[in-house]
Amino acid sequence: MSNRNLRVERLCASATAIALTAFVLPAVAMAQQAAPAAAADQAIVVTGIRASLDASAAIKRRNPVIVESISAEDIGKLPDVSIADSLARLPGVTAQRLEGRDQRLSIRGLGPDFGTTLLNGREQVTVGDNRGVEYDQYPSEFFKNVVVYKAANPSLVAAGISGTVDLRMLRPLAQNKRVMAVQLRGQMNGISALNPDSTNKGFRASAAYVDKFDNDTWGIAIGISAAHAPSQNERYNAWGFPNDSAAGGAMLLGGAKPYVQSNMLKRYGGVVTVEWQPSDKFHSTFDLLYSKFKETQHLRGIEFPLAAAWGSGATLQPGYTTSNGMVTSGTFTGVHAVQRNDLNERDANNLSLGWNGVLTLDHDMHLTLDASYSHAKRTDFLLETYTGTGYNSAGASDTVKISANPNGTYSIVPTLDYASTTQFGITDPRGWGYNGTSAVVQAGFLNRPSFKDDLASLRASLDGKFAGNNVVSGWEVGANFSRRKKTSAFKSYFLCPKGGTGSNCTVASGSTTFTSIPSAAVIGSVPLAYLGVPKMLALDPMYLYNNALTSSYDNRPVSLVRDNSVTENVLTGYAMLKLDGEVSGKKVTGALGVQVVHTDQSSDGSISNFSNGVVSIVPATGGAKFTNVLPSFNLSVEVARNSFIKLAASQTMVRPRMDQERVNQEYSTNPTYLSASAADVAAGKTYFSGTGGNPRLRPYQSTNFDISGEHYFRKGGYVSVAAYYKKLTDYIDPSQSFVYDFASAAKGVTGIGTTLGLVSAPANAGSGNLKGAEGTVQLPFGLFAPALDGFGVYGSLSYTDSTIRLASNPGKAITLPGLSDWVQNAAVYYEKSGFQARLSYRFRSTFLAEVSGLSANPTYRQAKSEGIVDAQIGYEFQPGSKLAGLAVMFQAKNLTDRPFITYQNYDPRQVIDYQRYGRDYYLSLSYKF
């Protein structure tokens, strides 16, 4: 995006915020004075958007903890396309888009690694690589509301530092009558199918049944959901920008990968809730949620190695142009590109079971028991296939012209015909294949990781009330035990052309280096015209895998020591005093208490060494036990009618990424220091050294202070302002050096002075702070005049600043992943007599995004600011109509077609990722009876 467009976007975002604060807020006082007192006490029945907003405001108002909330407009109907979409509209909450879908949530500037997600108050596992929940695994139709806790509470077990997201399912006994509801929604992406074996059209269908029986003593809610969600992605990825001598030391595009990507996410889910309350003495609830999804990604593109400084073998010709130290156009000869036809498949399922029982021991005392189990399993099939003009740059070379585009990408215009089956064949075009000891004909590669995550939890609590009308009105004590085990297993294979006499795909053994493309594998061609490539071969990668390629197990040391498991046994005890009463005529609610959390964590895996062509693998186990004390205090004071001041202070923690807790190490030995003593280790004179994980990692710690002012209007709507401060300690430095005992690897080694060595691994060696403020407005315009009834506005503006320093580089403050300094949300809506319309906008300033790097490993890059515009319009037939209960809705996402862009070295010209997802359109029909 050009600087001019960026300025326009920021101006629009600022104007929206100014309008909310400078125009709407002053009118509130006038509306308060003008509203007749009698009208304020009348019951106002609203539905749809307004009902959702009112329900969310009621949750925020009643809760003494500082929270935000979203509520379903009706059964099976959250106010947005997905849960993540809805959450991204809350004050201080942002979402990073992945594959065109909102996915990675940041709360108050802290990314998904700093928060937790609960389902009906219970911690959940994830199908992702770590702890951060991928919200695609939860069908949004199944939830009544979602509450985001921004402050801690003593009874909120497994709370996060940034916040805690609690997904809450519908409770059948709370419904007034039997409900049956069905919904069907068609979906289309604005970009035509980019690959011949994909589509840009999909659907979503759901059905729900809710009823009560036996004099309303028990109820049941059943829901099913199916979705086929397509997405298209015009991808561009730059390798980087070295200072190349061929360009006079100017920055030069080192290489690029233009791709077209087509995805299809297929998800099926079901939910059952059974609620039983035979008397006032006992209440039981059982929940089951199951979700299964499969995502298929077709990717086709070409890798163009360009910079000679990075061993491309290409030559930059005279006549290139530069601007401010960067080559903006030029011609390269001797280019040997890698044409790729890839297929990624992910199969995952998620199961959550939970039972809760509340027994009333006497009028003021209750015993609560809660048991839950959460399971997730995921397997990936990540297939890469390569074609080129010859093995190891031996075939015909290309002449390529590049030119910089205003959006930061480069147009790449080749000379060769990349759709030719006579000039291109199955091979290792660059000779990149290497198994650690010898060259491999790597005409493709297959990664097959799998993950399994299990969490069982048992909780018991006892609560009661104190006699009298004291402000300290009650008490609660409880304990929760959970056991979580995440297992990660990895397999990978080199793929080489069939034929020849070789083994293990090695060149030396006689493996085939080049073979023709089978005609049955050709399914057409695809254009990369958005970046200048007219077309390339579209091959069926599965046909190649099954018929034209042979596999050889990847036995490199780095590949052999990835399997691991991480187990966490956590016992949490808590005690709290509840506040509910009056002080000096002011209503006061809140809680004061403490959690004591004991953790026993361990990891099983292996450590490996590679020397003289031999791989040595030794089983390894590590772990730690520790206890954390987490006090917290919440206070809500109704300082005036419908006006509240809320205060919170707490100590919170969140556990490290699970891949950081693994015990796995890759180590090396230095015979020079074989007899070195333990005293020499600190000076770096060690026989053993390695890199890997750290099973002794402690959680991040945070001391938090929050204050919020909230005013609720009698006829709906509210305004609030909040400020927060977090002091972060035990922050994890991902590349800290510390002492590790390599005793398991020292067996059989004679003359060794010490088994201690140094490893480079994550450690709790950082600290810092985070502070910010946010404001929220939710106003129905009926407050101002009856003629405006049905119109409304809601929005928020937040600012966050952080300073984090790591021991490995204390002189430089780092950027928190996921933190945008400025986050703005705004929406205007109209809803009346069954008709509804909404236009919404959300903006986030630049942030550090997590993207997929080499071998699908997570890496971080600076992402450009982005503003997303969505809209919806619909109508629900009203009572009295023959079509009563039927509703139709049209929705559009990303109307401005905003791409996702990252860059490096704090230089927006050095664009690394450019992904255009296009607009998404939805047309839905729902019927309730």
UniProtKB/TrEMBL annotation:
InterPro entries reported for this sequence: Beta-barrel_TonB_sf, Plug_dom, Plug_dom_sf, TonB_rcpt_bac
Matches recorded under Pfam families: Plug (PF07715)
Signal peptide extent: 1-31
CC per GO annotation: cell outer membrane
Gene3D superfamilies linked to this entry: TonB-dependent receptor, beta-barrel domain (2.40.170.20), TonB-dependent receptor, plug domain (2.170.130.10)
Keywords: Cell outer membrane, Membrane, Receptor, Signal
Name under which the protein is recorded: TonB-dependent receptor
Organism: Novosphingobium umbonatum
Lineage summary: Bacteria, Pseudomonadati, Pseudomonadota, Alphaproteobacteria, Sphingomonadales
